[in-house]
Structure formats: C-alpha cells, structure tokens
Amino acid sequence: MKLETIFPKEIEKAKAGKTPLVIPVGTIEYHGPHCSFGCDTLIATGLLERLEKEKELIIAPPIWYSPASYAVAGPEKGTVHVEANVFEEYVKMMLKSFLYGGWKNIYLLIHHQYEQETPLPMTLACMKAAKTLTFEYLELTRGQGWWGDNKNKEFYDQLDEGDNPWNWITVLPCMSKQVQDMTGYDHAGKYECSILSALYPETVIKERIKDSDEWFIQNAVESSPEYGEKMVALCLEDLKKKIK
Fold first, then answer.
1. CATH code, domain with 50
2. Domain-located, residue 199
3. What is the dihedral of CA 180, 86, 62, 176, to 10 degrees?
C-alpha cells in the first residue's frame, strides 16, 4: 500500500499491527548523459514496489532532495544538493509526525553513497535524526530519568522480547555490504544501470554513453536488465529479512 492513497482506517490498523512504514530516501543527481537524475530514489522506490508484492508494508512518498553532494557534478549539470544539517532537521520533523502519531516500525531506505555500508552525510543525517528524535520522545512520554528509574531495571533483558525503542526507526541500505560483494556497486556504471534498468527500463539509454568520456560511466555499456534482475533478487532477499 502507498501511504498517500490509503485512508485513516487502514493507517490505524497498520500502526496497531506494526506494519512496516518504509520511506525511500534519494537524490536528484547527475548520473551521466544516459541515466536519469532520480536514479538513487528510483532504485529505492522500485525495490519497495517489488517487495510489497511479497511482504505487507506501507510505502511512504520518497524524499527526493537531500545531501547529494557535488562530488560527481555541480548544479550546472542538474545536481540538487541540500546541506546535511538542514536535511537532518527536515527528516527529524517528518519522522516526528510519524512517531508521535503512533508509528513504531519505520524504515528509511537509502541507495545514495552507501558503499560497503559506509555512513556518509545522507545516511548519517538520517541516523542522527532518528536517534535524537527517539530520545526526545522517550523523555517526553516517560519523563526525565526514565532509564535510571528502578521500574526499568530489566530494560536490557526486555529489548529482544518486546517494544525496543532503538528499533522504532531503522536506516537501511538498498544494497547491503553482503549484496554489494556478490554483485558490485558503482555510480551510473555497469551495476547501477543494470539494477535501474531492471526496475525502470525507460530511465537508462545506453546509446548515450558515448556522448561523454567520463570515467565512471564507461562500463555502463556492459549493463543489462537481466543482470539487474539478479541484483534485485539479492536485494529483496536481504530486505525481506531486515524489514520486519
């Protein structure tokens, strides 16, 4: 189900049953002349649309603008960059509405700059927003000193049994380190173009690779939807285990 198309009755049922609410987080970023600007966001969204066919979840509208950085190209080539501290506050405010509204099983799914699960600015901003918000919520709802209160002396024993607050909001990569090791990871090259073309074939035009001599796109000529489907399958197998 998509959050923007359902109704209050379904939302309340989802919250009560702790149905996963998953938010794709991505960019508008230059990916060469052959690959669409929304590549990172589309990969996260496309994987969730596939996963929804196998697992009950609610897909929230994606976050398109974020800390893309100008590492690949500047704004003159279409990249839209939002400073990490500004982005963090935006994500925190968005998550606050969900958490205070009763959602306790939220995931942020990221593809951009997540090589080998290294937490770079976008991921760090999402992680920090999630954890600071969780602490604020706990202090507001349970009172200052809640953890030190004797009523919580079995806090750690109960983490794996019940309502673990550190799991209320989770940040995940589309492609875990294990999946990346089994396939490959790049920017607008063989691997990214393969998985994108499997999910959204119209967003990759291989004939345009020749329009640029940029080093990072040259092996995109080796990309294929068929290889992309193998990558998608590995991602879905991994995500099914982690989105609970």
1. 3.40.50.10310
2. no
3. 10
Please say whether the dihedral angle defined by the alpha carbons of residues 64, 172, 87 and 215, taken in this order, is positive or negative. Answer: negative
Is 137 inside any structural domain? Answer: yes
Using one digit for the tens of pLDDT, what is the confidence trace for 150-197? Answer: 888 878 877 766 678 999 999 999 999 999 999 999 999 999 999 999
> Which tokens go with 15?
């919250």
Burial readout 168-202 (b: 16 or more C-beta within 10 A, e: otherwise): bbbbbbbbbeebbeebbbbbbbbbbbbbbbbbbee
Residues of the domain holding 11: 3-175+235-242
Strands in 169-173's sheet, in edge-to-edge order, are: 58-59, 21-25, 106-110, 169-173
Distance CA 244, CA 231 (A): 21
Q: Domain count for the chain, please give it.
A: 1
Domain assignment present for residue 46? The answer is yes
Per residue in 33-88, pLDDT tens?
999 999 999 999 999 999 999 999 999 999 999 999 999 999 999 999 999 999 99
